[in-house]
Design brief:
Radius of gyration: 20 Å
Structural class: alpha+beta
Strand order of the largest sheet: 2-1-3
Order of helices and strands: EEHHEHEEHEEHHHHHHH
Number of helices: 11
Number of strands: 7
Helix content: 40-55%
Distance between the termini: 48 Å
């Protein structure tokens, strides 16, 4: 399902994913994400305000290597997914332990960081001088934990995928809508990603989001169209298109809408 990485030097370093152009009619740009200043002094996704963190500690065993995490039950329960586990029989009552063998530890760690802090590394920071939003280590010239790693290896896919896409899809399963919005905004600030990684991550997004949730899918369609000069030279793009799938039908429709928008602007009286 996932193609091998192309030998071409395919990246979209000049193209960022959070910008949209003219809004003429219904098209792929309708779901573009506009960065907003995050709310402060609020708990994400209904996390209990004023919590003293005295609820029982839940041990979470994550991934095939069974890495252990610990979290307070009331914090975990802000997710409908974990609330159901804590109420149901899936939780080992004696040890307060949850097993999540299919999850990725690096992604789950970011989920927990978000549940406690309302953000995850790299944080979203506002650059007052430029009046723009940036990722933490970009704003600090990589003076934080080191270079920002935008990908995480996914064992099932057999390759690295964009971390923010993995977080978005995980948040979809966990019922954390604010985390989905945050992950999408952060992915829009990434640049310099290989075409093969973008396409593999787009396929993953299509496979792990419902048809009713089009925001992440629209993000990828808009990105590919804006970066079309790079993608049309990509050997990976050719292999992926020959393999087909819903992603490329949606891309065809989005391209048609894009061309219609350009045509209508050109023909409009001045």
């Amino acid at each position: 399902m996932f193609a091998k990485r192309s030998h071409h030097n395919d990246s979209f370093s000049k193209h960022r994913a959070a910008r949209s152009t003219n809004k003429a009619k219904r098209s792929f740009r309708e779901n573009a994400v506009t960065p907003k200043k995050p709310e402060r002094a609020t708990k994400p996704d209904g996390s209990p305000t004023g919590s003293t963190l005295t609820s029982p500690i839940i041990t979470i065993c994550v991934g095939p290597e069974q890495r252990l995490f610990a979290a307070h039950e009331d914090i975990l329960s802000t997710s409908p997914f974990f609330a159901a586990i804590c109420r149901g029989q899936f939780l080992e009552s004696a040890s307060k332990r949850v097993n999540l063998p299919e999850e990725i530890p690096e992604v789950f760690s970011s989920v927990l960081e978000y549940l406690y802090k309302g953000d995850y590394y790299p944080r979203l920071l506002h650059n007052k001088r430029r009046n723009a939003w940036e990722l933490e280590d970009v704003a600090n010239n990589n003076g934080g934990r080191g270079a920002v790693e935008s990908t995480v290896y996914h064992q099932g896919a057999g390759q690295a995928l964009l971390k923010d896409t993995l977080l978005y899809c995980t948040a979809e399963r966990y019922g954390l809508d604010e985390l989905k919005r945050l992950a999408l905004r952060k992915q829009g600030l990434q640049s310099g990603i290989q075409c093969s990684t973008i396409l593999s991550s787009a396929r993953y997004a299509y496979a792990n989001t419902p048809d009713s949730d089009s925001k992440l899918r629209a993000h990828y369609l808009a990105l590919i169209i804006r970066s079309r000069s790079t993608f049309k030279r990509s050997g990976t793009m050719q292999m992926e298109m020959e393999g087909g799938g819903k992603l490329f039908f949606d891309l065809f429709v989005a391209m048609c809408n894009h061309m219609d928008d350009i045509s209508s602007i050109t023909k409009s009286p001045r």
